[in-house]
Amino acid sequence: MTYQHRILIVDDDDMTRKRLTQLLKKEGYAVSSTDNGANALALLAKNPHDLVLSDLLMDQIDGLELLTRIKAQFPDVEVILITGYASIQTAIEAMKKGAYHYLEKPLRPDEVRHLVRRAVEKRQLQEQVKTLKTRLMAQTKEPLLIGQSRKILEIVDLLKQVAQANCNLLLMGESGTGKELAASLIHYHSRSRDKNFLAINCGSFAEDLLANELFGHEKGAFTGADAARAGLLETASGGTLFLDEIGEMPPSMQVKLLRAIQQQEVIRVGGSQPIPIDVRIISATNKDLKKAVNEGRFREDLYYRLNVVSIVLPTLRERKEDIPLLANFFLSRLAKRSGKRITGFSDEVIEVLTNYYFPGNVRELENIVERAVAMTRKDTIQLADLPPDLLEMKVFSFVQYDANIKPLREMEQDYIQWVLDKVGRNRTRAAKLLGIDRSSLWRHLKSFEIED
Q: d(Cα 55, Cα 35) in Å, to the nearest integer?
């Protein structure tokens, strides 16, 4: 069953309450209303609400006083103030007291819908972050792939499904998409979850050192080998070994790894006695491993041994709807670590982050948030706290997500569509920003068959 967000309308004008109630019920919200602040506080105490829309000027308890009491008693509830006497000073005071935003009478339905949707989304994010923190603080050590998008939820379901099959897996995806986290999630849901989960980056070691790490060594195998040492394949026996950047493994090491997988045994460096192993191998790469096979840089027989099941992890730009949730999750954790009280991001920051390409994916987002926490002097992250190169980027990007180069006409169509979306489909403003008159814009719209 889909959760209905609850909204409380507080206004001493009967007509305003009625219109807002009808408007928001049509949008699918559960709406209740009252004509005074005292009743509003009683209703909030009785039933949880996500958002309050309150008139500013009311008898006994006015909007600003109601806002103060709501934030004191129900700090997670968002508040939007309604005023017929809007002023900059009133808006500043309301925002300082914790209001999400304010609406000016006469109310415009589109503006009401937009602000309510954004406020509810913020409230939803807060709840999701709170749930994630609760899970992290619980006794369970389950790894978390954070997100609510269809793509990431499908990936999590798939990872849990293949966890039960004791076969080798190949995880593919760009750097920073969470391949090691996915591997640890598979191990957690496998039948060998109580055994070791070990990881190594195959691109971080020279060949001799990698052999020593994977296979171990006997006493006296080389200078400084004062005692025998088990390698990762041996130590992880019964559990899972994660081989990151498997495509960087030298050819000679590929031969040794293939033999270990086929024979289910290892021979330590400097030794001669085979040691039986039973280990599940999860490999990961951000390269085209099949292409490497075709070019002779990676052994085909090893490729098929490792790639019993392959899973491609989505990039962050493929699941943009998860960016606000991830950003708020990182902010909550990093702000606590720094000792700062930071409540969230400005709408402009969320817009910039959502429109950014993120070549470094989730790892880059975490880095950006960490920098913003260090730089900010306010209780919300502002544009000035973001890296300068991020702010200098054009919001409309010509970077393509596939290898095909779009024709100029198609790029022009995309840009006009993007500008229209940014100005709320206002043709006059769009034409001004595009540097053309309205009749020229109309001809473009007709030519491109863009609906308005």
A: 9
Q: What percent of the chain has pLDDT over 90?
A: 53
Which are the contacts of 434, defined by CB distance < 8 A and separation ≥ 6? 416, 419, 441
pLDDT at 236: 94
The pLDDT value recorded for residue 70 is 92
Question: In whole angstroms, what is the distance from residue 426 CA to residue 108 CA?
Answer: 15
Beta carbons of 123 and 50 less than 8 angstroms apart: yes
Distance CA 73, CA 65 (A): 12
Question: Which CATH number among 1.10.8.60, 1.10.150.130, 3.40.50.1360, 1.10.150.40 corresponds to the domain 317-392?
Answer: 1.10.8.60
Strands (DSSP E) found in 174-279: 197-201, 216-217, 229-230, 240-244, 265-266, 275-276
Instruction: Locate the domains of the chain by residue range.
Output: 6-134, 150-312, 317-392, 408-448
**Cβ atoms of residues 441 and 431 within 8 Å:** yes
Tens of pLDDT, residue by residue over 384-410, are: 999 887 776 544 554 444 445 667 777
**CB of 316 closer than 8 Å to CB of 322:** yes
Q: Could you say which residues of the chain have pLDDT below 50?
A: 1, 139, 394-395, 398-403
200: which strand partners?
A: 243
Q: 148, 325 in Cβ contact below 8 A? A: yes
Q: Tell me which DSSP letter residue 406 carries.
A: P
Give the architecture (CATH level 2) of 408-448: Orthogonal Bundle (1.10)
Q: Quick one: pLDDT at residue 91? A: 66
pLDDT of residue 371: 94
Architecture of domain 6-134: 3-Layer(aba) Sandwich (3.40)
> Do 6-134 and 150-312 agree at the fold level?
yes
**Domain 150-312 class?**
alpha beta
Per-residue burial over 189-218, b if 16 or more Cβ lie within 10 Å, else e, is bbebeebebbbbebeebeeeebbbbbbbbb
Q: What is the pLDDT of residue 248?
A: 93
Q: What local confidence, expressed as pLDDT, does residue 255 receive?
A: 95
